[in-house]
């Protein structure tokens, strides 16, 4: 769903517009010559309702009939289903084939769709099973791969032994899963080529070799992407997630050297660290578009690149490692248009955001950013309050916003210590209200915290064109924001 804007300063779109697909795998159960893979996609979502599409791939022996089962985790209910028949008892759902699509050969995929209702949350289902066999994406028992049957070679070492990353991850089998935008991996290899093992049908990626972008991968699926025909020698390779996917994890399985080459020791971590926290501006929503209506050029995802945001650009210029912990449409206490009961703080501490198996990310001792840049508040204040919300006046909203913001800053202080510099950013929203700017300045002024500062983005004075999708900052605008942020950081007594 695209939010139509009448003013150029409005900055975010509804949350569900950004991430609409979920790939879920569950634990393996024993069954000879059987296996399956399920791709569960939320195709549309609105308050209280949603549509979904499910792809089921049979990896085992041919079937003449099939039955897929799963459990919803938040009380969702199916109201209508096509290409099959459905029964539901509480959270448990069973979908059986229709009369014409029961035959499912080895390697073949069938699809069905449904409409449903949700209340409060709409996480992905769990425990998919086909005819009683858990869908893990592989056979049970797993056959021994051969040169003729395996197109994805195994990495030469554990993923995290091969690559450097500071992103929020969850180890999953031989790979790592991740959802936050801009998550990146950096490795080194010797030779003329390298393969990157991926399993992701939802996200786009940027691939760099020796600092230059060599490919943009659009929903690559399960594959090993090869970069070849390089000059013989030592090289660096970088994989960065371009898109948002709060309900869908990417899966990276590591690096594979081309014939005659080898994977080298991973790069040393950088001493400088920056964390960027925010909404669609921080995530890079539609930033590569040259038109505010990007429907004809592939939509929001195809035009988004977290690797080209002001955060990524700032970190690159300062030779810093970074996290981009951002979610379009989310606010400090209120989301865009007053949608949903959750907000950004609901998910800030998670490893996989809203994914069904998400949990609290255990902050490693190696992640202690010297700077945290926060941009939250556009969604809180850019749209008018509606009936049914907890606030009846902007003043009430602003009071709750300030209280929540102070609590959030206190959490960051506990997390990272008193030496971290925290920068609160805010763009011009004066056409709608001054409560946003007034609240940020009040928080800083009253804090008594010498390492807390604010940075105002004056859209007009900076010459921002907001030509990204739906009036968002363009690639040029992100370069402007990068320059302004670097100037502000230069005024701080940083000791890095």
Task: Explain how this protein is built.
GO terms for molecular function: carboxylic ester hydrolase activity; hydrolase activity, hydrolyzing O-glycosyl compounds; polysaccharide binding. Residues 1-32 form the signal peptide. It holds the Pfam family Lipase_GDSL_2. InterPro entries: CBD2, CBM2/CBM3_carb-bd_dom_sf, CBM2_carb-bd_dom_sf, CBM2_CS, CE2_N, CtCE2-like_dom, PCW_deacetylase/CE, SGNH_hydro. The structure is a single chain. This protein is α+β, with helices and mostly antiparallel strands and 496 residues long. It has 3 domains: 26-136, Immunoglobulin-like (Sandwich), CATH 2.60.40.290; 159-263, Galactose-binding domain-like (Jelly Rolls), CATH 2.60.120.260; 270-490, Rossmann fold. The chain is 17% helix and 32% strand. The protein has 10 helices and 26 strands. The strands form 5 sheets. Strands 1, 2, 3, 5, 8 and 11 form a 6-stranded antiparallel beta sheet that branches. Strands 6-7-4-9-10 form a 5-stranded antiparallel beta sheet, with no helix packed on it. Strand 16 (204-209) and strand 17 form a beta hairpin. Mean pLDDT is 87; it is low at 1-33 and 140-151.
């Amino acid at each position: 769903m695209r939010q139509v804007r009448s003013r150029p300063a409005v900055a975010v779109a509804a949350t569900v517009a950004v991430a609409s697909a979920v790939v879920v795998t569950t634990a393996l159960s024993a069954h000879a010559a059987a296996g399956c893979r399920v791709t569960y996609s939320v195709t549309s979502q609105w308050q209280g309702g949603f549509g979904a599409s499910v792809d089921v791939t049979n990896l085992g022996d041919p079937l003449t009939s099939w039955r897929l089962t799963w459990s919803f985790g938040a009380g969702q209910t199916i109201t209508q289903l096509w290409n099959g028949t459905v029964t539901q008892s509480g959270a448990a759902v069973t979908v059986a084939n229709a009369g014409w699509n029961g035959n499912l050969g080895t390697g073949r995929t069938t699809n069905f769709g449904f409409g449903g209702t949700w209340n409060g949350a709409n996480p992905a289902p769990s425990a998919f099973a086909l005819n009683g066999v858990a869908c893990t994406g592989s056979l049970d028992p797993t056959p021994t791969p051969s040169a003729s049957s395996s197109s994805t070679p195994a990495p030469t070492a554990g993923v995290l032994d091969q690559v450097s990353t500071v992103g929020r991850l969850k180890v999953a089998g031989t790979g790592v899963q991740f959802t936050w935008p801009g998550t990146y991996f950096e490795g080194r290899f010797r030779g003329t080529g390298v393969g990157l093992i991926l399993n992701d049908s939802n996200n786009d990626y940027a691939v760099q070799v020796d600092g230059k972008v060599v490919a943009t991968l659009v929903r690559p699926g399960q594959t090993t992407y090869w970069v070849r025909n390089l000059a013989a020698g030592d090289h660096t390779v970088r994989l960065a997630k371009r898109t948002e996917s709060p309900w869908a994890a990417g899966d990276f399985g590591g690096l594979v050297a081309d014939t005659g080459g080898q994977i080298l020791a991973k790069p040393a971590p950088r001493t400088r660290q920056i964390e960027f926290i925010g909404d669609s501006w921080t995530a890079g929503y539609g930033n590569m578009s040259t038109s505010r209506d990007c429907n004809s050029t592939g939509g929001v995802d195809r035009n988004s690149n977290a690797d080209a945001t002001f955060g990524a650009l700032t970190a690159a210029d300062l030779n810093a490692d970074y996290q981009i912990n951002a979610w379009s449409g989310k606010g400090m206490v209120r989301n865009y248009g007053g949608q949903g009961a959750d907000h950004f703080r609901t998910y800030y501490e998670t490893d996989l955001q809203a994914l069904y198996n998400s949990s609290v990310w255990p902050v490693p001792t190696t992640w202690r950013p010297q700077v945290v840049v926060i941009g939250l508040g556009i969604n809180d204040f850019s749209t008018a309050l509606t009936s049914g919300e907890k606030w009846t006046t902007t003043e009430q909203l602003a009071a709750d916003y300030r209280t929540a913001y102070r609590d959030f800053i206190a959490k960051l202080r506990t997390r990272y210590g008193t030496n971290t510099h925290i920068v609160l950013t805010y763009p011009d929203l004066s056409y709608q209200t001054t409560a946003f700017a007034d609240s940020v300045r009040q928080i800083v002024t009253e804090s008594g915290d010498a390492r807390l500062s604010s940075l105002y983005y004056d859209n007009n004075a900076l010459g921002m064109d907001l030509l990204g999708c739906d009036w968002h900052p363009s690639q040029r605008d992100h370069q402007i924001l990068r320059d302004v942020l670097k100037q502000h950081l230069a005024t701080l007594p940083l000791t890095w």
